[in-house]
Design a protein that fits this description.
Blueprint lengths: L7 H22 L3 H27 L11 H18 L7
Helix pairs in contact: 1-3, 2-3
């Protein structure tokens, strides 16, 4: 995997997210309602944090989507978004 220059790091991130989806969703279903809510909110907060970093780069005139040095950040954003999606598509325990 190349961390610096190409999209391999992003492909790896998406593969990881896909491969752990069922395990993650099963673990989420095993939580109590309050713990599920905490997990859901924590994931959302991490996604927001990384998006703020991404947006700050764009505000400085940098296009992180096409810059090789920012592909690891893009990969992190991909993984966190996938984890958020896992939670969003898992029924809240107790509902």
């Amino acid at each position: 995997m190349s961390v610096g220059g190409d999209l391999d790091v992003r492909r790896a991130a998406l593969t990881i997210a896909q491969e752990v989806e069922e395990l993650d969703r099963a673990a989420l279903r095993g939580l109590g309602p309050e713990a599920f809510d905490v997990q859901y909110e924590a994931r959302a907060a991490l996604i927001d944090h990384v998006r703020r970093i991404w947006d700050s780069l764009k505000a400085r005139g940098v296009n992180p989507a096409v810059r090789p040095e920012y592909q690891p950040l893009a990969a992190l954003q991909d993984i966190l978004t996938a984890l958020g999606d896992h939670a969003a598509h898992t029924d809240r325990p107790g509902d």
